[in-house]
Structure prediction request, 107 residues.
Amino acid sequence: MIIRQAFFEGAIRAGQEEAFKAYVAEKLMPMWLAFPGVREVRVLYDIERDEGAPSYPMVLSTMYESREVLAAALESPVRYESRDMTKGLLAMFDGHIHHHVFDLALG
Prediction:
């Protein structure tokens, strides 16, 4: 299995926390669930971290069968629609997003 994660490094703007989460749930999650070949979508919200660790208020984690399936999902129309929709989320966020792809070791 292939896991792709988007790390939101920074901070949700003060007073925007609930609006941020609602935007994810109502506008973005339906799009992420519509990515072709996606097997799982998880949204993780930070509740605590080690002292001195970077702040990741949200991590988006998606699972795919293979790198080929992930590549097809990243080229799909819904992915581009979700990138455009993400602009509204970024209006409530100070920081940047970086992506990582992992091979899930089962066992």
Summary: Helices lie at 17-33, 67-74, 77-90. The mean pLDDT is 96.
